[in-house]
Amino acid sequence: MRRRERLTGFFIIFILLVFSAYSNSMNIGGRSKSIDTNFLKIEENSENGVKLEQNMSPELNSKLKIKSEKELTERKNDKTELKPKEAVSVFPTDQPQEKKGNDKLKVFGERKTQTMMKQIKVHQVKKGETLWDIAHQHDLNIDTLIGANNISNMNSIKPGQEFKILPVKGIIYRVSPGESLSSISRKFNLEKEKVMEDNNIEDPTKLKIDQKLILRGAKPEFSYQDRLDQKFMYPIDSRITSYYGKRWGRMHEGLDFAAPMGSPIRAVSSGRVVYSGWATGYGYVVIIEHQKGLRTLYAHNSKLLVKTGESVAKGEVISRSGNTGNSTGPHLHLEVQVNGRPENPLNYINK
């Protein structure tokens, strides 16, 4: 009896152990499933850049997931705000390359317009200064000062007097009737293309009378000694009605002589006729070259008596006075052109 009771007790204990083992195995299976679920959550949230720990509780994982989704939303908003600014300030790709190139050429063109004429400086003479001092100060030579300014007496300059200072060594030249860019370039032995570039000229056929050019590297043809030696006669025995200088708000670049219609006009000195014909503004005009760098111009004539290429003597009648071109009545307009620019004729005329 006792033996049976003892066996029964062992049997009951065995059953309890087996049941307990089975129960534990079921719990382990449940935890595995739970762990698998957590692995899935880890994968999902890893795509959002947030790494969840396996050993965290479901409550912590849930909070972390909510936080990660919030951070992701904020990050996306930040990218949306920054992207347009970056595209404009860092990567301006909305402008075609060709257009940018054209803009660059346009800017270069504007700069070229200002490079020569608009870069001319003005030097005001100080007490005790000489032309040689001024030339040395601006790294120029006397020829360049002469070629840009009306200097009648190089040894007598006064304080306060102003001189143009060119940005390059060369001269300022004013286009006369009958001249072209090719003839000017040949005259000073310059390259036509270089003259065009320096003066921002796109079409050489559109060169205008009285247009001013800077001729880089050109030297004045009419020297200081020539100024002392050359004296002209009056072109007509008549009174001067308008002098060289400012008139009616603009520069009058010559002398006007009273000259009834048809009066004889004489060459002020011997030379060669370089132009005889019509010129806008001047009417019928004669231009005589007396020597390199020195010319005289006779405008508003009614009749021309000499032709281009002819040689004339001092005092020879070259035309008849008139009222052609921009003129308010019969008269003679006389200019003295030195190195391509008009100067006061009274500095050269000796009656």
UniProtKB/TrEMBL annotation:
SMART domains (alphabetical): LysM
All residue ranges annotated as the LysM domain in the record: 121-165, 171-215
Keyword NAD tagged: no
Keyword entries, A-Z: Signal
GO molecular function (one): metalloendopeptidase activity
InterPro entries attached to this UniProt entry: Cell_wall_metabolism_enzyme (IPR050570), Dup_hybrid_motif (IPR011055), LysM (IPR018392), LysM_dom_sf (IPR036779), M23ase_b-sheet_dom (IPR016047)
The protein, known as: Peptidase M23
Organism of this sequence: Halanaerobium praevalens (strain ATCC 33744 / DSM 2228 / GSL)
